[in-house]
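Hello Y.,

Per our agreement to keep a running log of every chain we model this quarter, I'm adding this entry. I've kept the format consistent with earlier entries: sequence first, then predicted structure.
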Amino acid sequence: MTVAVLFARADSHYKALPDVDVYDIDRDARTYDGPHPVVAHPPCRGWATLRHKAKPRADERNLARLAVALVREFGGVLEHPHRTTLWEAQRLPAVGQRDAFGGFTMVIDQNWWGHRAQKRTRLYVVGCEPTQVPPPPLVLGEATHTVGLWSGRDKSTCRPSIAKHEYEHTPPELAAWLVELARRCKTAPVGSSEALRTNEKENTDV
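Predicted structure for the entry above:
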């Protein structure tokens, strides 16, 4: 089964995977109209902890709202930082709960798949049961690096921070795992396309 990867980097590891249709900045994920399940990586800086210091484009926050709608319509998984405000704004389910689309939330650490930092991450999954999720690896102990700024920290006693490009890159092993997860997802059984758009309008924050 083909999987569409939305909002990928131009140098994304996803482009090396078979049967994966990658939408980077040149292809524009806003044009995606199905029918395949998706792995969505919408921009997070407008929703993240340091959003007050970010300078997102005027329409950038809406890309995450679009990603929620596409995951609900075609099935698949949306990835965002653990401390994102997208979940509250879009009324996405807490861990252990399900929403009207059958969607559920998982929390993972990206160092399980080889990232140098822990990089705790939320996943919103629609179209499969939790028991169908591919088993994630489990890595014990601290990651070698951190995600963060040096401000206010003693460099001599702290783990180093990852490089700037590592903030956005998905480790190859995690990319393959997310694609396999999306392949196990079928079109969300609840609601028509029109109902999905109506629901998104109701859930949009202001």
